[in-house]
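Researcher: Next entry in the queue.
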Amino acid sequence: MKKQDIIPGDWYRILFGETPVVFLVEILIRTFIMYIILLVIVRFMGKRMGGQLTISELAVMITLGAIVSPGMQMPQTGILLCIMILICALVFQRGINLLEYKSERFERASQGTLSILVKNGVMQMDELKQTKVSRQQLFAALRNKEVFNLGDVDRVYLEACGLFSIYTSTGPRPGLLLFPPDDRSIATYQQITLGNKIVCANCGAVPDRPDRAQPCPECGARQWGSASISNPNQPIDSSS
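Model: Structure for this entry, 240 residues:
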């Protein structure tokens, strides 16, 4: 389009562009056909495409969107070309899955590996930094599983697909409270503050010998707080 063809207030050009109005009917037909074909292709790609996507599956889904768009919108692009590319994407994705099934090394290279974010109630700060997971994201995932004390956690895995797998301990242990600091009304919910225990506010470690003057043996921080332990029999303090 030339510069002199752009006229402010040309609503026909703004609404329909350079295509005739009748092309809107063709877009409807193209979109319907491509939608049906896309559903079929995604169906053959497997059940995982409808769940939590892995890295390769996410890449395929983004590619599918780029493939079907020209065939639905551009009159000079035929839909058979888009369908052929969709079939190629299907073959490519299924081939990737087959290679991942046969080769553990290839699977690790394409999908990545899990990361251990929490061990025995202590956050692994190096893993959090490497995976770019913030402490608040981790706390939110734990609270979503009704875990309010880091001492109640044995392991938290960040799976290769991005899901959190949380395993709690068999019994309560002193640890770091996971309640938001701004919500003081729930800070004592089923928790008992231990006056003889301190907890690192950075990683959640509880040292055997409480000494606020010393750095944390796990992460080296000097941010200390009072440790708490879960008590399921303690009701919420509604007066706070």
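Model: The chain has seven helices and six strands.
Researcher: Noted, moving on.
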